[in-house]
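User: Continuing from earlier, I have the next pair ready.

Assistant: Great, send them over.

User: Here they are, in order.

Assistant: Folding the first of the pair now:
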Amino acid sequence: MLFRNNPVLTRELMATLRAPRAFWLQWAYVSLLGLVVYSAWPAGEGEDRLVSAGAAQVLFDLFFLGQFFLVAVMAPTFAAGTITGEKERKTYEMLLASPLQPSSILVGKLLSSMTYLVLLILSSVPLMILCFLLGGLELSEIARAYLVLVLAAGTFGLLSVMCSSFFRRTSSSLVVSYLVIFPLALLFVALTRTDDLIARDFVSIAVLPPWCAAIWTVVAIVVIRRLLHPPDLGSEGKEVVDEQEEQRFAIGVVIDRNQFPDKLFAPAKRPDLMPDGTNPVLDKELRSEIFSQGTLMLRVVIQVSMLLSIPLMAWLLFYQPRLTGYYVGYVLTFNLLVGPVFAAGSITQERERKTINLLLTTLLQPAEIVLAKLLASLRVSTVLTLLLTEQLILAYLLVDVLRDRAWSFFIYMAIILVTCLVTSTVGMLCSALARRTSVAMVLNYFVLLVLFAGPVALARFLAGFTAISERKLALLSVLSPYSATLSVPLRIRGTFSSLDAGGDLVEGFALLPGVGLPVWAAFLILYPPICATLYGLTNLAFRYRWWNAGSVE
């Protein structure tokens, strides 16, 4: 029953593969890859195509990195809700009470979530063969790339299932999955994309398979043990949180709502009545359990991000101050991961908790409800993000070359604050449009990746395969906070490793064509009206889909 006649696997596959969105997503994915191949295909004939062997290698590398990025992003969206979804639907106890073995449940959940992702990967094989026809590629190299992709999909999927077994909510499981998977994905790419072809083959064939098998074994044992002896079942008082007991088992970070800066995002419970004019929804959101109780997910996010910021601070800020923008990019990535957690479920969780009807019976206007939820999510995500800027402040105080350009610090901070506003606003809109929190979060991550990473990827592609000018590339990348950060004029002329070799800071403005504005200035000017528009759309969506409906069941 492990593979054959597995009811969990059969049910999940039928629900996934028979859905119309599965066919539409696969069609869109293959069409996008086909458009990329068509755009990069050489226009020459005969011998001119032989000259394009190098272009074929570049296109192959682009394909591999793009699909690997797809695996790292989509694997948690498919697998992080496999067990938490059962808990949210109140069917987890029924699943454990069935005659199925824990191993059968694990295999069914994993294969059902990863099968569609593997099908997406394999659907690109014909297009990859076209790159082989250009010359400069070996079939063994293509086979090795797909082996790495399948191994990565299995590893990331199992890790996401493990995270799903530790949490009650899909949103928490999804965020922690990304925190675990993204560093591992960078390690995968670093090991498999070396310039030495022999080393690349050795790592892909001899190192990664046993390494992934060991990870699969350990993770599978952990998940099976939790399914055999679930620690989160069997107590009627499990909703009550004992803060003293929680502090005993805290994993490094304990949130104390009476101390600074914890009280900024986890204010203490109100001991008295609210003053007149206070928005009750805002007060409730700020003092809800996820902010005031110091959940496991929140502690993991804070701890992992702080630990990663220490070596990044030492290298990017003190040893290589010319790379300060990359540390700011790390801060932006943290907000990209954390922001949707607090915004994407703001409205959908009211429906899932069956409290939407109570909210609609209040005297509050829809705009007041939406604004309160936006301010609460924006406050928490912004405060958590700004905790990572302490290292940036320290660098500007201690490093001479940064202190001389103190004004660039304020530009970086403005970019960070605007990015926090964007992630929260997009999350609120997704929460108003979606019916479930998991769907809203996936949609939120997808939109943010298209906005933030899409322009950078498109600019890199056009720069490699077209003769487009740098100024037009700057126009394409204006929507990305990463491009805005790297356009801040903080460049060092000279050696890459030391400031003592005559290196100095030089102006490095990337200007928009026909406007003369730096990319970072255009970013700061463009996004506030976009966020205002998204906020207006959120109000409309909430009014006509939720408020006027009266009840959404």
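And the other member of the pair:
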Amino acid sequence: MNFTVNGRFLVIMENNIQKSLRWICTALFPILCIGMIWFLQNFTKLDTSIQYIDWQTAVKIGQDDSLTELDYSVPPETGERFRLETVIPANSKYGNLVFETAGMNLTVSIDEKAVWQSETLVPEGAAGQAQAIIPLPLNTECKLTVIGTVTDTTSIIFPPFPRFVPVDAEEIESYAYANYYSIPAGATAFISLMIAGLFLLGIARKNADWSLIPLFLASVGLTMQWITKGMGHHFLDDGLVDFLNRQEIGILLLVLLIVYLVMNRQRKFWKYFGVSAAVSAVTLAGAYMVSFFTNSRLSKYIGRLISDVTEFYDYSGLLYWITVWTVAVCAVISAYAVTRSIISQQMEAKTLRLRNELIMNSYHAIESKVTDSAAIRHEMKHKIIALDALYQKGDYEALGQLIGDIKQQNDHLAQTQFTENFTVNTILQDAAYRAAQSDIRFDVLVSVPPQLTVAESDLCELLMNMLDNALEATAEVTDGKRFVRFQIETKNGFLAVKCENSYSGKRRQDANGNYITTKNDAETHGFGLKLMSAVAVRYHSILDIFTSENQTFTVQTALKLPKK
């Protein structure tokens, strides 16, 4: 009793641990996704914080070089002169000072030494502004002086608003934008390769999934679209860039995605799709919160997508990412389905091998039984001689006892000789015995030579599975005739095998029309038909299965006999 209680406790503990692990893994996956998104988006982030400096001294220089306090609220006039001064502290972490110079003629000095002088004219293509980039001494306090003359009030920003920028700002900006476009493009490109790999794997396994074709085209289109939105015009033909950025291409990608979804409308697929949607929503929400509190780029980007929809009714950005997400999820589901199929086939092959071993063991047991019976029949000859001796002697008591033993033994050994082929005869004798035990009529028609060129293992797989299934199905019949009719013969270089049996009418078929087991434990049963089909294929044939209106189940095949 203690052993039983402890065993149940251990089983309960094991089940609880497994459930906990499933929940932990389910929660851990979105956390890992959030962490990965946060990590990668850091490489697309620019330091957009702008640190302006305040002018400590701002004066207007008159015609007579007189100095008056500069009034920022009064617009400057052409020809007006001014001087601005401030002290830059030594702890400044920035290496450059940047400000707009259009409309002014400026001279910039650091510690009373002129380091830069502006151009009077606005450079062509500068959008009305020209910039000054002034290198600053690092970790050294310095005095910044700007003396300027207003030359054009139409494009002027007055007073100048200098701001600090890092020394490698341009390089960082280039990398940030490159990563911003390359990371999503790389992700969709990887998805494209994964889908292509799954399709090619299916072809190699003779089970190609043609629905992957539209999914592959959609993923490739998304990759190209994102590239062209970024820096694609630097590397691709302008005509191709314009073509890929057309609105019709986005619609085409959605159509391809819809085609894939229609081709995968099974219930199991939509179950996985729903779970993926829930996990993705949690992941996105978590990533958004992390980005929001860290003031990073992702939250701002999501906010911009939402504002585009709510304020400008622009759905293009949102639809693009929905399409990307759908393609990614569908690719993952397809990969999961293929992986599960491979594992299932491997387990099935293992089970089939084990079943084959059991069949052969069963056959050898029957063979041994028949051999033992032959030995017993040989022994009977000697007992008959003993009977004659007892009769001649007149020992009727011993004679009667011996006759009783012989009668009992003879009832046990009463078996029909169906054919001179030992393997076929042994299997049929065992089937006949089981049929008699279950009150099943067993009719046999055999016409085979003593030796067949079919491998003994294949013959056992075919006949034993065929008869096992027939006897099991017939045993379930509660009303009407219970029969099994078996026929095997050689004709025109073929071994023709046919088995008919009555059944209860309960037969299940899969989506492809193949018969499957009606037993509750489907994972450990239902291999008989697969084994028989495999034997038929090995001998250039097929396994033909059909039912009739009178509740008769028929299995037949014709194996091409190999030459000796």
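Worth noting for the second one:
The longest strand covers residues 142-150. The longest helix spans residues 316-393.
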